[in-house]
Amino acid sequence: MHGHPHQVPWEAAVSWAEIFEHQKRRQPLVEEWLGWLELGPGDHLADLGTGPGLTSLMAANRVQPHGRVYAVDHWPEALDFLRRQAAAAGVDNIDLIQADLGHDDLSGVVPAGRVRKAMLTHVLHHVPAPQSVLQRVHAWLGPGARMVVAEFDPGGPGRVGPPPEERIREAELAQWLSDAGFHIVRRKTYPEQEQYALLVERR
Ligand SMILES: C[S@@+](CC[C@H](N)C(=O)[O-])C[C@H]1O[C@@H](n2cnc3c(N)ncnc32)[C@H](O)[C@@H]1O
């Protein structure tokens, strides 16, 4: 993959281990979202922008014995962190894929035909052109595939997550998803965690 990550201040300021700790605090939400996807044995899930990979580790357990998780991130260090976590936990059904969601063609590296479920959580506020990422993901996923998209709410006080000015409004994200060809199946807000999640289906 030729994607060249550019560093943003948030990523420069914290370590992958710290981000992993943040992810652990969101674990109940991730369980709920994997439930929305009805993720179970034999499924193939793409975790787009996995970071240090807690979602991928949780999903890898659910899809055993024959399912797989494709953990995608543009940062090799994040994938190295996840590789170590997976090895320590004896998890061997995660494929680590270094790719830039804004530039790389996922179809060459992740078998979209088999991937019917995806997570895109807390990623879009990092990318310079989120709408083009959604268009690329739409082009790659097959019709009927489902995906959970979660982001932080700019209306929150900023106690957790990125600064409010870097966040994406739910109405705006919903419009982008619809424009890209996704149908919104359900939505939920989490005021305590200053975030919201949307379950979408690729049309
Ligand atoms: C805040 S972390 C979220 C991690 C995880 N999805 C979660 O919900 O906890 C954002 C991740 O998205 C990744 N990311 C940002 N832009 C990306 C891009 N263009 N391509 C691939 N990964 C990207 C970052 O490297 C980082 O690991």
Highlighted features:
203 residues; alpha/beta; Rossmann fold; 7-stranded mixed β-sheet; 7 strands; disordered N terminus
Q: Could you characterize the architecture of this molecule?
A:
By secondary structure, the protein is α/β, with parallel strands linked by helices. It has a single domain (9-184, 191-202), classed as Rossmann fold. It is built from 7 helices and 7 strands; from the N terminus they run αααβαβαββαβαββ. The protein has helices at 9-13, 16-25, 27-36, 54-63, 76-89, 130-140, 170-180, and strands at residues 44-48, 68-73, 94-98, 117-121, 146-152, 182-190, 195-202. A 7-stranded mixed beta sheet has the order 3-2-1-4-5-7-6, with helices on both faces. A hairpin with a 4-residue loop joins strand 6 and strand 7. Helix 3 crosses helix 4 (54-63). The longest helix has 14 residues, at 76-89. The chain is globular and about 40 Å long. Bound molecules: S-adenosylmethionine. Residues 23, 49-51, 55, 73-75, 78, 100-102, 121-123, 126-127 line the site of S-adenosylmethionine (SAM). This is Methyltransferase type 11. One of its GO terms (molecular function) is methyltransferase activity. Residues 42-159 form the Methyltransferase domain. Pfam families: Methyltransf_31. InterPro entries: Methyltranfer_dom, SAM-dependent_MTases_sf.
